[in-house]
Amino acid sequence: MAASWVVTGLGVIVSLLGYYLTPSAWGYGILGFGLAHIVLGVLDMFRTPVRGRY
How many C-beta neighbours within 10 Å does residue 44 have? Predict the structure, then answer.
């Protein structure tokens, strides 16, 4: 669960960086990369952990 929060937090930071650079193509790419990390971090929070397979 801690890794999910780290990924989401880094996604917020990267998204803010991309937001401030949005007039350029690099800004939109960085913003999308950060938003993807936010979505993946939140989805990972809802996933049930696998205890053991064997």
Answer: 15
- Residue in 36, 49, 35 with CA at minimum distance from that of residue 2: 49
pLDDT tens digits, one per residue of 25-48? 899 999 999 999 999 999 999 887
CA 43 centroid distance within chain = 10
Q: How far apart are CA 20 and CA 51, in angstroms?
A: 42
- Rounded to two decimals, the pTM is 0.81
The owner of tokens 């650079």 is 21
Tokens 């880094």 belong to residue? 10
